[in-house]
Specification:
Strand content: 15-25%
Number of domains: 4
Shape: globular
Number of strands: 24
Largest sheet: 15 strands, mixed
Structural class: alpha+beta
Length: 752
């Protein structure tokens, strides 16, 4: 092989790999600004002073610490010069069948006017019971506090700025629901900007918007340097069941922007979500967004904020690309023409044939399916091994397993490529890949337009590479640079998404499938530039190398994925007592029994729902019935016959101010709690309602049911913590609670 050819091959491969590494290294949050930063800029270190206070302990709705945090939040807003109102009411979220007593802290910073409406900055100040909530969502609250301080240090805004520090988000978006439904300031809101987290690190991203987001995205890009976001995330998220307070804002027709960071989700809703482990760079990113957006929209005319949806995505290094539907259609047409031109040019110079390009089309399409299945299979195997054979560990967050998926998928793709490459030219494969990507871009443009960029820009790179190649010409520096330039669209778009797939879905089956597909998409898009590898390495070595590395990484995952104090196992432990039969049970949400849970549920416990009609499965074992708290009480204040049924007005009290779950198989046609309407629907044959923070005074429930026979109403009280019993160990340091935490559950049936 000529020395010049080898040098150019090395240069092409090296530059492509450098682009891949650079894409990963540039996908990082910004550096935190110190407390000595200028007064009119956001400083994460200043904001951390608030996080340290808010997230010193768990503060779920109804807890004593919750009241401490509420007072601190309200006092801080007042110190920052805002008009402050603590909205105390009953929040109801119909979607979840949940209600509860909430205390929203709402602030107003008056603009210099004339105001065209109000911009709302929102975050929630409650946490789950299991963790102090430094990321979720003390970071959002602190970002707003530091934003307000920086705003006060500069010229005033023209529009009013509202702040909603909502309560009960973790319980079911209760505070946001109460604010938009009842608070008098809600009618002034023209734009809601929400800040969230699902983890304690990572780059904050614009992952959700309201419909007709074109103007919002354009102005956000102008307001924030190095904005990170993706219309792909927007398209995916709106089809998922996940919710934040922004869901409530959007449901009430408000334009909305939603930001979050999601790195290290193993800390999510656990004790590890504390101030010590919170990434200061992630907080800096959130605050930079909050300050820039508040300044931009605080000085804009908010009369009309709607425009057709935009396609948008960020590139490593801080570039944010956005364009409207008409431009997107123009790019799709350009891609079609470029593929047609490349095909014509390649066939005329006999570098490709129509039949070969068709075969390349089929190869690329099938390869995406195959490597996606391979990625899912590797993830499934890792999960199964640690569930059934190996010690438990954080499989979802394992970097070794994630890299194993990438390498094995790449090896399988290389094997498939080696098989077809002997029969097809590199241009056949390149044009086939470009045609598949264009077809996917067209389908995406008409069905899920925000995802079209994922296929469009790599297709332009593939088609340009195929159209510009010169058969028989010797290697030149310009040719090398052109090959690398053609690869950049795929590298700069797909590599960050590959990282995002790991960060967002982890080593789950779904995450493995997505990572595998993205590897196939990237490899197929780079087939022409990486063809240089075949000039100094055998096909066998090109296949074996990634497979061997992948298997070695899988082995590292098997050996290193373990539960430990540094990587604890998260689960919930419930002590369940039936007040009618005095039967008690231990129940654990763990995937399998371990040395600690075996003391409670046994070595081979049964897995079943806690109560009939529920789908969630728990490991269960018998427990000794002990007095933990008085069981819930019901008093029928009024009962009467009604057309086709009966009506009841009931007073319910908890033995210790906690949460009450109501359930009946009787068909409920109308229901209110504390005078607020709640869903009359039944789920799975039973009507259910959860009320958080019952309080000592209890609550009033009104029901109208169909039929006049006896009605059985099951009431379950949930209290924080479990009883301490002789001979039973406390949680070891390698095991931590998660979500609602460890609870005592007392169930009692009432026949009405």
């Amino acid at each position: 092989m000529p020395r010049a050819t080898r040098l150019h091959a090395v240069a092409i491969v090296g530059l492509v790999l450098l682009s891949v590494v650079g894409s990963l290294l540039l996908t990082r949050p910004p550096a935190a600004r110190p407390v000595t930063a200028p007064a009119d800029v956001f400083s994460a270190e200043r904001a951390m002073l608030h996080v340290a206070v808010i997230a010193r302990r768990p503060h779920p709705i109804g807890s004593e610490e919750h009241a401490v945090v509420r007072d601190y939040v309200a006092r801080t807003l007042m110190d920052l010069g805002l008009d402050v109102d603590v909205q105390k009411t009953t929040g109801v979220t119909a979607k979840y069948g949940v209600a509860g007593a909430v205390e929203n802290v709402v602030g107003r910073l008056h603009g210099a006017g004339p105001s065209t409406g109000a911009v709302l900055l929102a975050a929630h100040y409650d946490s789950v019971a299991a963790g102090p909530g430094a990321g979720d969502d003390a970071s959002g609250v602190a970002a707003i506090f530091e934003t307000l301080r920086a705003l006060r240090a500069g010229p005033p805004l023209e529009n009013d700025l509202l702040v909603l520090l909502s309560d009960g988000e973790e319980a079911g978006l209760l505070g946001a629901s109460a604010f938009v439904s009842e608070h008098p300031w809600a009618k002034d809101v023209r734009l809601a900007i929400n800040f969230e987290a699902r983890g304690n690190s990572g780059v904050p991203s614009l992952f959700e918007t309201s419909p007709e987001n074109g103007l919002l995205v354009r102005e956000a890009a102008r307001a924030v340097p190095a904005l990170v976001g993706s219309s792909l995330s927007y398209e995916v998220y709106k089809r998922m069941p996940n919710d934040t307070d922004a869901t409530v804002f959007k449901a009430h027709g408000l334009p909305a922007l939603n930001f979050a960071f999601i790195g290290n989700w193993a800390a999510y809703h656990t004790p590890s979500d504390d101030a010590e482990h919170l990434d200061r760079g992630s907080l800096q990113g959130q605050g930079t967004y909050a300050l820039g957006l508040a300044r931009r929209f605080g000085r804009m005319d908010l009369g009309s904020l709607r425009a057709p949806d935009a396609v948008f995505f960020s590139l490593p290094g801080g570039l944010f690309v956005h364009y409207g539907g008409a431009v997107a259609f123009g790019f799709v047409v350009l891609a079609v023409l470029l593929v047609a031109f490349g095909t014509r040019r390649a066939t005329r110079t006999r570098r490709a044939t129509l039949l070969g390009a068709a075969a390349g089309f089929g190869f690329f399409l099938v390869s995406l399916v195959v490597v996606g299945a391979v990625g899912g299979a590797v993830a499934f195997l890792a999960g199964w091994l640690h569930a059934e054979v190996l010690p438990e560990g954080d499989v979802l967050g394992s970097a070794a397993y994630a890299w194993a998926i990438v390498c094995v998928a790449l090896g399988v793709w290389a094997a498939a490529y080696a098989l077809v490459r002997d029969r097809l030219s590199v241009d056949d494969v390149g044009l086939g890949a470009a045609a598949v990507l264009v077809a996917l871009a067209i389908a995406a443009f008409f069905q899920v337009p925000g995802t079209s960029y994922l296929f469009l820009w790599p297709s332009l790179g593939c088609a340009t590479c195929a159209a510009s190649r010169r058969e028989g010409a010797g290697p030149t520096a310009m040719a090398s640079l052109a090959a690398v330039a053609c690869s950049l669209p795929a590298v700069l778009i797909v590599v960050p998404l590959l990282h995002g797939a790991y960060e967002g879905l982890g080593v789950s089956v779904g995450g493995g499938v997505l990572m595998g597909i993205l590897v196939g998409l990237l490899a197929g898009s780079l087939a022409a530039p990486l063809e240089s590898l075949r000039s100094f390495a055998s096909a066998r070595s090109l296949v074996a190398s990634p497979l061997v590395v992948g298997l070695a990484l899988f082995g590292l995952g098997m050996a290193g994925t373990r539960t430990s104090v540094e990587h604890p196992k998260a689960s919930q432990l419930w002590y369940v007592l039936d007040a009618g039969t005095s039967r008690a049970r231990w129940a654990s949400s763990a995937a399998r029994s371990d040395a600690w849970t075996a003391e409670l549920v046994g070595t081979h416990p049964a897995r079943a729902p806690l109560f009939p009609g529920l789908s969630r499965m728990w490991l269960q074992g018998d427990a000794v019935a002990v007095a933990t708290a008085a069981p819930p009480e019901l008093t029928v204040v009024e009962a009467a016959d009604a057309a086709g049924g009966r009506t009841f007005r009931i007073e319910a009290r908890a033995g210790r101010a906690g949460a009450l779950d109501f359930e009946t198989l009787s068909p409920v046609v109308e229901a209110t709690v504390e005078g607020k309407a709640v869903p009359p629907r039944s789920a799975g044959g039973a009507w259910r309602l959860t009320y958080l923070d019952v309080g000592e005074a209890g609550i009033t429930l009104a029901l109208r049911v169909r039929g006049r026979g006896p009605m059985t109403l099951s009431v379950t009280e949930r209290l924080a913590g479990v009883p301490v019993m002789a001979g039973k160990s406390a949680r070891p340091p390698w095991s931590v609670p998660q979500h609602d935490g460890d609870q005592t559950v007392i169930r009692r049936d009432f026949v009405l």
